[in-house]
Amino acid sequence: MAMVSAIQEAQKDNLRSFNDYMMKVLEEDWQKEKRDFLQSLSRISTLPKTNMIDKSSGGVRSGQMVPMASSSQVSSGPSAIGLLPLADKRLVEKKVSVYAEVVRNLNNARQQGLPFKPATAFKVAYESLGTEASGGKSVNMQKMWHLILKLMGEDSMMRQSVSRKMSLVIGARRHLEWGHEKYIMDIIQSHPAQAALGGAVGNLHRVRAFLRIRLRDYGLLDFDAGDARRQPPIDTTWQQIYFCLRTGYYDEARQVALSSRASHQFAPLLAEWINGGGMVPAHAAAAAAEECEKMFRMGDRVGRASYDKKKLLLYAIISGSRRQIDRLLRDIPSLFSTIEDFLWFILSAVQDFPGGTSSNEGLVPYSLDDLQAYLNKFEPSYYTKNGKDPLVYPYILLLSIQLLPAISYLSKEAGEEEYHIDAAHIAIVLADNGVLSEVSGAGQKLGVMDAYAEASSIIRQYGSMYLRLGNLQMALEYYAQAAAAVGGGHVSWTGRGSVDQQRQMNLMLKQLLTEILFRDGGVYLLLGSRGAGEEGELRRFLTDHKARQQFLLEAARQCLDSGLYDKSIEIQKRIGAFSMALDTINKCLSEAICALSRGRLDGESQTAGLIHSGNEILETFKYYPEVSFQEREHVSEQQTILRQLETILSIHKLTRLGQYLDALREVAKIPFLPFDPRAPDTSADVFQNLSPHVQACLPDLLKVAITCLDNVSDTDGSLRAMRSKIATFLANNMRQNWPRDLYEKVAKSL
C-alpha cells in the first residue's frame, strides 16, 4: 500500500507540475500577444496635447507641449505617446516642443531675409534634450543630425566649382571622418601606455599614436625608429596617409606623402585629389588606375605585410575607376572591417562627371548610382538587425545620398522614440536646402516636383496633427514649410525658384491657409480681430493687398460651397464684399424660412440671428469707405430681398400664432406679389422678377395664405378675390414644378 500511495503522490506531483508549466506558457504567450498589440497601436502616432493658453496671458507659449495628464483637451484618436513609459513620453513631448520652436524661428528668418542654418538649429535643439546615451544602438538621432548638418555643409564653405551632388558626397565623407576621429581618440584613451602620445596634441601625433596600438604586433614602426641601421623599422607610410585621410587630416596626409620616398609618386596625385575636393583631372585618374593595374599584376608577395594593401586602396580612390574598385573589393573581401570604412572608401572614390562618364575614354568611373544599387540589394532588416537598431538603415541611405527614401522610411518607422517626428524635420532641412532635386535614390528616378511633393506631404501630415489638436498657430508654421518645400525650399521665400515651383507653392499655400481658415479660430488667427488680414498672420504669407483680397474671396466661395455659411459671411464682411455677404444671408434666411414652415424647432432662433447679421452688415456698410457705385446698387438689391424675406417670415409667425386675419392683411400688403384683392389684375410675370431666394419661399407662403383663408370668414367678398388672384398666380406659373399638394390645396379652396 505504501508503494501505491507513493506512486499516486508522484503522479499528482507530475500533474501539478504539468499544469503549472502550461499556465506559465499560456501567461508568456499572453504577455507576448499583449506586447505585439501595443506595438501595433504605436503605429497610430499622434502628437501630445498642446496648451492653448494665449501668449498674452503669461501662460505657456503657443505650440509648447504639456503633459497629457494635465490637458483637458480631447484628442481626435488614440495616441501612441500614451502607451509609452512616463520618461519616454516626456522626452517625446519635449522633442516636439524644441523642434516646433526651431520651425517658428526658421519661418521668421526666411520671411525677414535673415541667415538661418536649420540643420544646426535642429541638431542643437535635439542635443538640448540630453539623450546622449545610445542604449546599445550603433546609430542614434544625434548622430543622424550631425550627418544632416555635414550633408548640408552648414559648418564649412563648399567650393563654388563643386556640384550640389558632389557637395553632398563630400558632406557624407566628412561625417564619416568625424566619426573616425572620435574612434581614434577613444582607442588612444583606452590604451594610453601603448599610444605613448605624451604631451603631443597634433593631428599627425594622434594618428601615429593610434598606429602604435593598431600595429603593436608588427615590431618597431618607422616614425619611432631612432637609428634605422640598427633595426629595420616597419614602413607605415601608406598606413599614415590612409588614416590621416580617413580621419579628415588632409594636410597631414599631404605632409606624410611629401616626406616619404615610398609615396613620392603618389604625392602629386593626392594633392590633385585634395585640391579638387575629390575630383581629379583625367590624366591623374589614368595614372592612378595604371598603378593599380601594376599592383594587381604583381600580386601579393610572400611575407609582405597586409597593411601595404592601403597603397592599393589609396590609388584606387584617386583613380575612381569602377573596374579597379570592383576588383579590389572582389580580391580582398576582408579589406574593410566596418560598413563606415567601406562607405568612406567608396564616397572618396566617387566623382561626379557630367553625363556620368569620365573625359578619359576607357575609364568608367564608380558612380553614386553604383553605390546605391549595391546597398539596396540588401533588405532594411539586414541593416537594422531585424529592428534592433532601427536607425542604421536610414543612416545608410543618407550616407549614400538617398535622401527621399531615408525620410520616407523614417516617417513610417514606429518605435518608442517616435522617429516620424524627426523625419518631418529632416524633410524640412532637406527641402529648405533644395537638395531633393539633385538625387532621389537608385531605382527611384522621381521628377523634381515629385521629390519635393513627397517631402511636402510628410511635413504637411505632421502639421495636420497640430490642426487636429486645435493648435492652429503651429499648424500654420508647418504648413508654411510644406508649401515652401514644393517651391524649392529657401529659394521659394525669395522668389528665385522656377516659375513652376512658384506656381505650385502658391497653390499649396492657399490650399493650406484655406484649411486653417475653415477651422474654429482660423479667421481670427489669419485675419486678426478686424480687417482683411492686415492684423493677422495672413500678411506674413500674402504681403500684397490684392492677393489677400482675391484669396479671401475664393475662400469665402469655398466656405459657401462647403456649407460654412457663418464663416463665409464673416470673411465677406472683412473684405468689404457686403453684397455677397447679404446674398449669403438671404440664401440662409430663405432656407431657414422653408425649414420653419416645415416645423423645424430651431428655425425661429436661426432666422432671428440671420436678420440681425443682415442689419449689422447694412449698418457697417453705411460707414465703409471707398464703396463703388456698382457695389452700392448690389447692396440695395440685397437689402430689398432681405426685407421681402422678413415680410414672408412675419406672415409665417402670425399664422403659427393663429392670427389668420392679420396674416392675410400682410399677404395683401406684399408689394412684390399680386394678391391685394382691391388692386386691379396685372398680366406682368411678377414671379420672374423675384430673387431665387424669395421664389423658394413662395410655395410655403401660398399654402399658409390658403390656410388663413380657410380659417377666416369672407364678409365682403375680398377673400374670394384673394383666392382668385392666388389661383391665377399659380396657373401662370405651372412650369415651376411646385409641390402637387399645393395645387390640390388651391383647387379645394376655390
UniProtKB/TrEMBL annotation:
Stretches the record annotates as Disordered:
52-73
- Indicate where this protein resides in the cell: Nucleus envelope; Nucleus, Nuclear pore complex
Spell out the InterPro entries in the cross-references.
Nucleoporin_int_Nup93/Nic96 (IPR007231)
Please provide the record's keywords in A-Z order.
Membrane, mRNA transport, Nuclear pore complex, Nucleus, Protein transport, Translocation, Transport
> GO biological process: what's one of them?
protein import into nucleus
Which Gene Ontology MF annotations are present?
structural constituent of nuclear pore
Gene Ontology cellular component terms for the protein in this record: nuclear pore
Q: What is its main location?
A: nucleus
Task: List compositional bias (Low complexity) regions by residue number.
Answer: 64-73
Q: Which Pfam families match?
A: Nic96
Protein family membership: Belongs to the nucleoporin interacting component (NIC) family.
- Protein name (record): Nuclear pore protein
List the source organism. Gossypium laxum
